[in-house]
Amino acid sequence: MGTYKKDGATYADGIFSDITEYKRLEAQLRHAQKLEAVGQLVGGIAHDFNNVLTAIIGFAGILQMKMKREDPLTVNVEQVLEAAERGASLTQSLLVFGRKQSINTVPVDIAELIKRMEKLLVRLISEDIQLKTVIQDPELVVIGDSVQIEQILINIVTNARDAMPNGGTLTIDVHREKLDKEFTKTHGYGKPGAYALISVSDTGIGMDEKTRARIFEPFFTTKEVGKGTGLGLSIVYGIVKQHNGFINAYSETGKGTTFKIYLPLLRGAVEKVKPADVAASIIIGTETVLIAEDDDSVRKISKKLLETFGYTVIEAVNGEEAVKRYMENKDNIRLLILDVIMPKKSGKEAYEQIREVSPGIKTLFMSGYTADVIQTKWIVEKGLDFISKPSSPTDFLRKIREVLDK
Questions:
Q1: pLDDT confidence of residue 271
Q2: Degrees (nearest 5) of the Cα angle 247, 120, 94?
Q3: CA pair distance 290, 330, nearest whole angstrom
Q4: How many of the other CB atoms lie within 10 Å of CB of 347?
Q5: What single string gives the DSSP state of each residue in 161-224?
Q6: Neighbouring residues of 303: CB distance < 8 A, sequence distance ≥ 6
Q7: In the sheet that 129-135 helps form, which strands lie side by side, from edge to edge?
Q8: What b/e readout covers 192-203, taking b as 16+ CB neighbours within 10 angstroms?
Q9: For 222-231, which contacts have Cβ atoms below 8 Å and span 24 or more sequence positions?
Q10: Is it true that the peptide bond before 138 is cis, omega within 30 degrees of 0?
Q11: What are the extents of the domains in the chain?
């Protein structure tokens, strides 16, 4: 750029560029990097934390099973289990936020899900808030995890309730929306296609633009200390992204807030959930099982639990020892329970070596690591069974019974 004078006036010439789009992309990149950093942190601590919770839930679960219902100390055990399960739930939610936890996806009818949730949502809000649901299209089927989609609504509705301290109206509108290239170009997000659009609007205090721009950041909150973790909307963001969807918020101070969630539509019928088979409640066994787990506390509680319910247990502290113990007892062992990540030999390596000797050996993999670390894809492709840590004693025993009875 340069300057020059002509006819007594000073002029400037140069090349000017509109960097608005560049600044927008730069802000998006910074936001994505923040989310990724927290996701990496969560993934790093999840394994050890899940092992701790597995031991707490396991030993407390055995206590609960052995205590009589009228025992006054049962309330203490229940409190321990409730606290541990809250910890497990928080870990799972954080992993979903970081998109490091696999989700159980099936066809889900969004309209049916919201109808089913109405009573719960009414209980979440105060009496001076009116809930309205508007379902414009009755059949909107997406591929998703219904529990996680419910979590989206619970988190957003809870925020909406807090934004209406003096009452108001909360509206949930569901309809079909088709996004085209013009939409994605204008809004800067989304992919062309048909979507189920869930709009959640409140008539609350709203937000200024500075606050709205940060609401999906982890640990950002406008609530008082002790009133919120700042993770609710971050978790919502992670769940939506895991469902290949998009979310945006529209708000002005004093004019309320609207969240718009776009989930890709699927054509087809919804799978109906069948009631659990009576046989699934049977958790007692007499088989010999080999459990390979490098965490002492998890191995001890698993062994104690299995022996309490009739199984014979052979232990191994790593993958190499698991192979050795199997070769010594291959005529008796009916099931392998293998931690996925172990020293010396991983669960996968131990399984493949044992399989060379016994191709049909039944195997249950378990792990407290995140989905990306444990190579969930390999387990799924092989059609193998897997259970996440922590799990309740009953769920663990039922899963073992399910694998053995296949």
A1: 42
A2: 45
A3: 10
A4: 26
A5: HHT-TT-EEEEEEEEEEEE-HHHHHHHS---SEEEEEEEEEE-S----HHHHTTTTSTT---SP
A6: 291, 313, 315
A7: 129-135, 168-179, 193-202, 257-264, 246-251
A8: eeebbbbbbbbb
A9: 223/162, 231/93, 231/94, 231/97
A10: no
A11: 20-97, 106-264, 278-404
Prediction pTM value:
0.51
The predicted-structure confidence for 333-357, as pLDDT tens digits, reads as follows 999 999 888 888 888 899 999 999 9
Under CATH, to which class is 106-264 assigned? Answer: alpha beta
Using CA atoms, how far apart are residues 319 and 342, in angstroms rounded to an integer? Answer: 6
Residue 401, both tokens: 């019974």
Contact 227, 209 (CB under 8 A): no
Burial status of residue 207 (CB atoms within 10 A of its CB: 0-12, 13-18, 19 or more): buried
Residue 242 tokens read as 């895991």
pLDDT confidence bin for 174, thresholds 50/70/90 = very high
- Residue for token digits 């982890």? 218
Distance of CA 369 to CAs 109, 376, 403, Å? 31, 10, 22
**What does the block give as tokens for 154?**
């619970």
Which CATH class, in words, describes the domain spanning 278-404? alpha beta
What tens digit of pLDDT does each residue of 286-311 get?
Answer: 899 999 998 888 888 888 888 888 89
Q: How far is CA 342 from the centre of its chain?
A: 24
Residues 344 and 318: beta-carbon distance below 8 Å: yes
Q: How far apart are CA 203 and CA 161, in angstroms?
A: 10
Q: Shortest CA distance to 130 belongs to which of 202, 24, 214, 23?
A: 202
Q: What is the CA radius of gyration of the chain?
A: 26
Q: For residues 166 and 281, what is the distance between their CA atoms, to the nearest angstrom?
A: 48
CATH fold for the domain made of 20-97: Helix Hairpins (1.10.287)
